Amino acid sequence: MDNLSPDVLRAAAQGDTEAFEQIYRTYSSFVFNVAFRMVEAREDAEEVVQEVFLIVHNKLKSFMFRSSLKTWVYRITVNCAINFLNKRNRDHKGRVEFDEDFGYSAGPSDLEKSLESQDVEHKVRQLLTLLNPDERACVVLRNVEGLSYEQIAQSLKVNINTVRTRLKRAREKMLKSGKEVIADEL
Amino acid sequence: MNCERIKDLILTDYSDGQISAQGRKQVEDHTAHCASCRSLAQRVLKESVAPFQQLTPARCDDFVWQRIKQKLQEPQPPPAGVGVLDILGNFLYPFRPLAIAASLVFLLAIAPMMYSNFTPQQSYLTYVMETDSGSDDITAGVEQYFL
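Output (structure tokens, whole complex):
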């Protein structure tokens, strides 16, 4: 049960905050990571994390363990992030703001490494902005979290071939963008 | 396998390591002699897979947990859907078959009354239709007037 004992889950479902904190400590890294890659800005990702864990807390009692808890939490995370993106797109009419705080800290001695990381972060953000929320969710779960196609299909409650189709379209868009960049540079 | 099928695999299962050993061999046999598919395989890995593998995992600040904890400790509003009507509905639920039977009896009781109210109107309409055989004549009369 994802390293969490049934006793912890039972206690958390009955409102034990300390038990729920254990669930938070176990899953908050990947929830934040997925949310951050999906919604791009750190503050927005934190808002998504908060929403995800409040939903987990409220629904834990009714969770029937038909899937693993981790898959269930992934599903809630992706749904919250997609809802957040849709809402933001409605509010800002599709405007995407880049957040320069990339979610990690580095000491001055790591300057070169830090610049390299920022390049990677920037590139990844550029790639992700090419994708619609569904494609983005598949790419993040596959390439950032390393989930198998089967796990992605379970997390998103879609057919495994839908996962393939979304990944294929996402990569075609990324490659097309790469070609355009090369053409612009030439 | 033709290039189209190989390209589909390169864009998905092959680049993600989700392909069977046999499938992998088929793709590699094909790319060994097809420059276009070989180039695609290299580009997919370099441009759409590798950048994600170099990412540093993002970290969530601890104050997020403090905020969640604070929310959890706030007094919770009563769960949605537990209003007076729901309580009444739950109370009446065991009597539902009785309510259905009572409704049927009521409908059967008022049906003859509705029928008896309806009959005179129907008779009147039938009477008008039978006696007012000259309705077409009005139009004819108007036409004749203007002619």
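Chain A is about 75% helix and 0% strand.
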